[in-house]
């Protein structure tokens, strides 16, 4: 009755899977004399002995032993305490135990639930990760595919990114870039086509000029020669003398046109020498400033004394200078100021350049004409003064020297031609 009261009081007679949740036992020395621990047959396990380990700890050493123990046929969480008589002698042991299986099952259930929660969480995380990465990688993959096609020269009509985040913004930016490059590419193609057409046209003109030189030059020379002979043999009052004079002048004009065509078509490689641009300009002025058109023109020179020598073909650059200076004089009708200035300046990639500026005080050039003055056969002069090839020849000569020619002008403010010559190291 004592052990059953302990069980009922402490463990409330609780059972788990048909077994008492709590048990109690009284040992006389090491013999179980009172217990509610049941055997597999349902009998009280009386007469069984205490384990050796508990015997040594409790009966011999007199200490309380608390540990996990296998009692009869199951595992219990147990406590053993010595029972003493009035003389303080240990005469037995009091045991109480609680069935371990319930807590083991709880632990297993908790572990199972934890593993299940972990697995479900992993599945949910995987699904979310798949959805999120798909929403990110798919637009990026589409964008990469579009970029690959773009790199192969295929321009997409549109770049569709089905999202509402930074990737969509990236897609819009990429689409804007594609449209801009496509537009620029089309403009470059159009420019290239125009350039090719212009080059072909110039090549045809060159071939035409060569043909003109062979087919027309010799007959013109004969016409001029015989006109001159007939004029010399005529008396001064001959009525046909005036007509022959007109024939001779028109033939000379044709010869001048042929010469301009030859100069334009002739691809003569520059014979470069280290030359002072100042000396080249002065030699040109010495040739032309005594002509009648310069009688009422003031020429002002502003030379930089520290200019380096440049590698040029003196004869070709003289041709350029003569053409520009004569154009300036003719634009002013022989009255005004021509200013010639030379200086050095630093250009792209730290390249030092020598620049020659030729300015006049003439009426200037209309803005509509500025874009055309370097085109072959374009001229604002009368038919008797030129055929529009002089500046085209100048452009070609400057390009052959690695330089360039530019024009700046406003109506009523005169015109300035700028010649740029790149400096090269002097040969050793």
Please give a structural write-up.
This protein is an alpha+beta fold and 428 residues long. 49% of the residues lie in helices and 22% in strands. The protein has 9 helices and 14 strands. It has helices at residues 2-11, 52-60, 101-151, 166-233, 241-265, 277-288, 314-331, 367-370, 390-400, and strands at 15-16, 19-20, 22-28, 31-35, 65-71, 74-84, 90-99, 273-275, 296-303, 310-312, 335-346, 352-360, 404-409, 415-422. Helix 4 (166-233) packs antiparallel against helix 5. The chain is rod-shaped, with a radius of gyration of 57 Å. The model has no long low-confidence stretch (mean pLDDT 80).
Which bin fits the share of residues in helices?
40-55%
Spans with pLDDT under 50 lasting ≥5 residues? none
Record field, number of beta strands: 14
What is the approximate shape? rod-shaped
Please write the string of helix (H) and strand (E) elements. Answer: HEEEEHEEEHHHEHEEHEEHHEE
Radius of gyration: 57 Å
Q: Looking across the biggest beta sheet, what order are the strands in?
A: 4-3-7-6-5
Largest sheet: 5 strands, antiparallel
């Amino acid at each position: 009755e004592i052990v059953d009261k302990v069980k009922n009081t402490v463990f409330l007679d609780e059972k788990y899977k048909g077994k008492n949740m709590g048990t109690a036992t009284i040992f006389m020395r090491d013999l179980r004399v009172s217990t509610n621990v049941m055997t597999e047959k349902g009998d009280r396990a009386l007469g069984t002995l205490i384990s050796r380990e508990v015997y040594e700890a409790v009966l011999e050493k007199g200490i309380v032993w608390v540990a996990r123990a296998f009692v009869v046929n199951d595992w219990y969480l147990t406590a053993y305490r010595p029972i003493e008589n009035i003389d303080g002698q240990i005469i037995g042991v009091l045991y109480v135990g609680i069935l371990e299986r319930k807590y083991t099952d709880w632990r297993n259930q908790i572990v199972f639930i934890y593993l299940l929660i972990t697995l479900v969480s992993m599945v949910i995380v995987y699904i979310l990760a798949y959805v999120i990465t798909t929403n990110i990688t798919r637009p990026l993959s589409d964008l990469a595919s579009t970029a690959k096609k773009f790199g192969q020269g295929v321009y997409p009509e549109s770049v569709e990114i089905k999202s509402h985040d930074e990737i969509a913004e990236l897609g819009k930016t990429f689409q804007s870039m594609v449209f801009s490059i496509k537009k620029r590419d089309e403009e470059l193609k159009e420019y290239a086509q125009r350039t090719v057409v212009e080059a072909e046209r110039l090549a045809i003109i060159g071939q035409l000029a060569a043909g003109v030189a062979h087919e027309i030059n010799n007959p013109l020379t004969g016409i001029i020669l015989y006109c001159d002979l007939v004029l010399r043999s005529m008396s001064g009052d001959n009525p046909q003398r005036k007509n022959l004079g007109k024939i001779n002048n028109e033939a000379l004009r044709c010869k001048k046109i042929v010469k301009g065509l030859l100069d334009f078509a002739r691809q003569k490689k520059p014979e470069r020498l280290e030359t002072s641009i100042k000396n080249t300009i002065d030699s040109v002025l010495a040739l032309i400033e005594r002509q009648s058109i310069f009688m009422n023109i003031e020429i002002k020179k502003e030379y930089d004394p520290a200019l380096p020598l440049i590698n040029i073909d003196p004869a070709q650059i003289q041709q350029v200078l003569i053409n520009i200076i004569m154009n300036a004089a003719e634009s002013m009708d022989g009255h005004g100021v021509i200013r010639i200035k030379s200086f050095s300046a630093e250009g792209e990639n730290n390249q030092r350049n020598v620049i020659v500026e030729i300015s006049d005080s003439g009426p200037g050039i209309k803005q509509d004409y500025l874009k055309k003055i370097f085109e072959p056969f374009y001229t604002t002069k009368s038919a008797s003064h030129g055929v529009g090839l002089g500046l085209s020849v100048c452009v070609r000569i400057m390009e052959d020297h690695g330089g360039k020619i530019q024009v700046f002008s406003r109506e009523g403010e005169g015109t300035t031609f700028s010649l740029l010559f790149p400096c090269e190291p002097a040969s050793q």
